[in-house]
Design a protein that fits this description.
flat; mainly alpha; 197 residues
Length: 197
């Protein structure tokens, strides 16, 4: 494991970015609800996207220095794509829990379980996954362009170290589409009928 990490420092940076994301988000929420320092909280929360900029810059600079695109570059693209797509909602999720716990806010809302609201929720969540996929593939394209390696045909993605991440994410997003929003649209769960005594 040590050899793998020393040969792929970008993997360490991805781990550091994940830790940095949660440290900045947690510090921003703590500043808001525990210290009542709203301005400091805003600055810390606005710094969260800087983590993504650091990662994509490091990844592109790595291939610009004639380092062949590999698994770690693909993983960096996936991390960036899904942080862009889900980062805001993860911070909002944590914010509602902080507000409830430390500032007397209302209990965090639960996702809808039945009917049209459930269907809309599933499509919204899948839309975030589709955005994550699009950003991932966009970053892979930029990385391949900078490296000068070109883009393999989609069926050849599986055999390419970097583009194999694109194929994995494509499969995951397709399964998510069929298993959740499409299935829920075709058979929306209904609330159990109340039986009056």
């Amino acid at each position: 494991m040590g050899d793998f990490l020393s040969e792929n420092p970008l993997v360490l940076l991805i781990g550091a970015c994940e830790v940095g994301f949660w440290v900045l988000a947690g510090a921003g929420l703590a500043a808001r609800y525990l210290l009542r320092a709203r301005r400091m909280s805003t600055v810390l929360l606005l710094a969260v996207p800087v983590v993504d900029i650091v990662l994509v810059t490091a990844s592109v600079l790595d291939v610009a220095r004639v380092s062949p695109p590999g698994l770690s570059h693909g993983l960096a693209a996936v991390y960036l794509g899904f942080t862009v797509a889900f980062g805001h909602s993860m911070v909002r999720w944590a914010d509602s829990r902080f507000a409830h716990r430390f500032a007397g806010g209302p209990p965090p809302p639960r996702p809808p379980r039945y009917g049209a609201a459930k269907v809309a929720h599933e499509w919204r969540e899948w839309g975030k996954a589709a955005l994550g996929w699009a950003v991932t593939v966009g970053v892979l394209l930029v990385t391949a362009t900078v490296a000068g390696t070109g883009v393999p045909a989609p069926l050849d993605w599986f055999g390419d170290p970097m583009w194999s991440w694109g194929s994995r994410i494509s499969i995951a997003v397709a399964i998510w589409l069929v298993g959740w929003p499409v299935w829920t649209t075709l058979a929306p769960p209904r609330a159990p009928e109340r039986v009056d005594a």
